[in-house]
């Protein structure tokens, strides 16, 4: 009895017949738009639907990002704890003790670690996100998938490390006997949202520009260093307020969304500084920064969508 198989078989058909069958099969596949989907709202919505359809792949990329970071390391994820603690120790000793910053700031270690926690999240998303497309060029050139998934995967891995640092921060406040219980914790979700939205917006736009101009990665390192010192992480905002006050430069300083996010984290976790000076209407400023950040996120996605059509050729 002979069996019948459907479809082209490279073993039983000639190369010409097999090639013709493959062309017919490819012709039946739907075409996918490589450029940006049109529409102020329909474009981002279509991108979100595409990312949601590939959510399992997104989860795999996040896990790959975490595993590759500490590949062949004996301590593995323990480095996620060691690195921020070492950074805290360096700043605490160098600035707190040697330069005397700790004398003017109560619980200086908690103060500085609160700012470092949210800054590390922002820095990691922007830095890793900028190189995410270039670093995944092999996948991008071989298969179709929403390219936004690569910078977004860096957000997921950064949030994992952020969660570890928040646990350490809460543990430090408990050891110091000043665990945050009050209403100041309301600043935490808003300040976190500000950092996430702005970091993701930068990651999307910069990752696309980095494909065409590789100097972007070096520029990002320089600007992140500048913005680190332009945020009240290792010094108190009260020092800035004394120098700038309510002047134009003072308002310009507070226009930095990471300045507001750092201040929000300090208000949430730095109990010893509950009586210290903070900018007027800090929560309102945070909400405004969040609203503008959502617009920046939309703009970043639009920039990414318009530039992604030639990624494969440029890579």
> What general form does the structure show?
elongated
Number of helix segments?
16
Strand content: under 5%
Order of helices and strands: HHHHHHHHHHHHHHHH
Measured distance between first and last alpha carbons: 53 Å
Overall helicity: over 70%
Any idea how many domains? 1
Low-pLDDT ranges: 1-10
| Whole-angstrom Rg | 24 Å
Number of strands: 0
Mean pLDDT: 82
How would you classify the helix and strand content by structural class? mainly alpha
Q: Sketch the major β-sheet.
A: none
Give me a quick take on this structure.
It is elongated and about 85 Å long.
Layout: helices, strands, pairs:
Elements: H1 15-27, H2 42-53, H3 55-69, H4 79-98, H5 101-104, H6 108-130, H7 132-135, H8 137-142, H9 149-175, H10 187-212, H11 216-229, H12 237-244, H13 248-254, H14 257-269, H15 282-307, H16 311-314
Helix pairs in contact: 3-9, 4-6, 6-9, 6-10, 6-11, 6-14, 10-14, 10-15, 14-15
What do these coordinates show?
There is one protein chain. It is built from 16 helices and no strands. With about 325 residues, the protein is an all-alpha fold. The protein has one domain. Helix 6 runs antiparallel to helix 9, helix 6 runs antiparallel to helix 11 and helix 14 packs across helix 15. The longest helix is centred in the middle third of the chain and has 27 residues. The N terminus is likely disordered.
List its salient traits.
disordered N terminus; 70% helix; elongated; mainly alpha; 315 residues
